[in-house]
Amino acid sequence: MGNLAVQDLTKSYGSVHVLKHINLAIDEGDFLVLVGPSGCGKSTLLSIIAGLEQQTSGSILISGKVVDTLEPKERDIAMVFQSYALYPAMTVADNIGFALEMSGVPKPERLVRIQKVAELLQIEHLLQRKPGQLSGGQRQRVAMGRALVREPKLFLFDEPLSNLDAKLRVEMRTEIKKLHTRLQTTIVYVTHDQIEAMTMATRIAVMKDGLIQQFGTPSDIYDRPANTFVATFMGSPPMNLVPVTVEDGQLIMASGERLSIPVGVNAAAITGGKLLLGLRPEWIALADQGAKDSFRMEIEVVEPTGPDLYVNLNFGGQAIIARLPAGESVKQGEYAQFLIDSSKTMLFDADTGMAL
């Protein structure tokens, strides 16, 4: 296993700046997820770490060693691609062991390592089949096995689950997480799916327009987003953003509704200016009629998801979403009282989007 450091890394194609001063570091055994919308630079960053592309400036260090000038095969990394990239004429066993054969590993040792990895991934019964005889999930396991058998310092995953159907994607997500827990491998994983990022990572780097918007643990990213992009990109449904101003130590909506300033925010320091109050849907709860500090809201749409209800509300002319437990008595077109947990809410500068 190895640690990874990316230091002031940039990548440009002529006048187009794809990556802009990227800095991040993870320890041995960390599971780093690079997440962001298409075109944000996450796959380019992964390719540079792998040595498949060359950065314009900055450095990559693996286990404390600068690898900028090393070829991919010299970096002691293994990569799992979105397309699996299996050799169709080879058996599963030969696909898994191909890199070992090319490296001159003796056949008896190859067979032992192939069998060990196959048992770990529960594909030992598939070793004599060819890729065309496998399902999508089985092919993905073989691609993972080919990476694992090399025992590298760093594993790189480039959107490996995007070709799978929804059910299989959830199953494979769990399998990869189990594998990481069992082996404590160091992983860098690229995805555009924020659910994958939140459920798998020990560290997340949220990217947009070639910049890291926030780097931290999943709870950091979710509970205390650095800006409105992170707040709305990470989370499903996304964080509600309600325009407010500050007056007499309270937040005032355009409709005149008054809300508490989030705990820990200095009211004197934010007087004046346009602000956005951040509310996660689960920070809004149904209240009894007449409950103190509750707000009367119109229920516009109710969306049952099984364990939860997503309730679209009209809050003083502002559309927001609440996540309520299944079974709550709410009906479309009616009004109800709701409480907002001000101990968790956040404030953002409306012009810059930055958290206060």
Automatic annotation (TrEMBL):
<dbReference type="GO" id="GO:0055052">
    <property type="term" value="C:ATP-binding cassette (ABC) transporter complex, substrate-binding subunit-containing"/>
</dbReference>
<dbReference type="Pfam" id="PF17912">
    <property type="entry name" value="OB_MalK"/>
</dbReference>
<keyword id="KW-0762">Sugar transport</keyword>
<dbReference type="InterPro" id="IPR040582">
    <property type="entry name" value="OB_MalK-like"/>
</dbReference>
<dbReference type="InterPro" id="IPR003439">
    <property type="entry name" value="ABC_transporter-like_ATP-bd"/>
</dbReference>
<dbReference type="InterPro" id="IPR017871">
    <property type="entry name" value="ABC_transporter-like_CS"/>
</dbReference>
<dbReference type="GO" id="GO:0005524">
    <property type="term" value="F:ATP binding"/>
</dbReference>
<keyword id="KW-0067">ATP-binding</keyword>
<dbReference type="GO" id="GO:0016887">
    <property type="term" value="F:ATP hydrolysis activity"/>
</dbReference>
<dbReference type="InterPro" id="IPR003593">
    <property type="entry name" value="AAA+_ATPase"/>
</dbReference>
<dbReference type="InterPro" id="IPR005116">
    <property type="entry name" value="Transp-assoc_OB_typ1"/>
</dbReference>
<dbReference type="InterPro" id="IPR047641">
    <property type="entry name" value="ABC_transpr_MalK/UgpC-like"/>
</dbReference>
<feature type="domain" description="ABC transporter">
    <location>
        <begin position="4"/>
        <end position="234"/>
    </location>
</feature>
<dbReference type="InterPro" id="IPR012340">
    <property type="entry name" value="NA-bd_OB-fold"/>
</dbReference>
<dbReference type="Pfam" id="PF03459">
    <property type="entry name" value="TOBE"/>
</dbReference>
<dbReference type="GO" id="GO:0008643">
    <property type="term" value="P:carbohydrate transport"/>
</dbReference>
<dbReference type="InterPro" id="IPR008995">
    <property type="entry name" value="Mo/tungstate-bd_C_term_dom"/>
</dbReference>
<keyword id="KW-0813">Transport</keyword>
<protein>
    <submittedName>
        <fullName>Multiple sugar transport system ATP-binding protein</fullName>
    </submittedName>
</protein>
<keyword id="KW-0547">Nucleotide-binding</keyword>
<dbReference type="Pfam" id="PF00005">
    <property type="entry name" value="ABC_tran"/>
</dbReference>
<dbReference type="GO" id="GO:0140359">
    <property type="term" value="F:ABC-type transporter activity"/>
</dbReference>
<dbReference type="InterPro" id="IPR015855">
    <property type="entry name" value="ABC_transpr_MalK-like"/>
</dbReference>
<dbReference type="InterPro" id="IPR027417">
    <property type="entry name" value="P-loop_NTPase"/>
</dbReference>
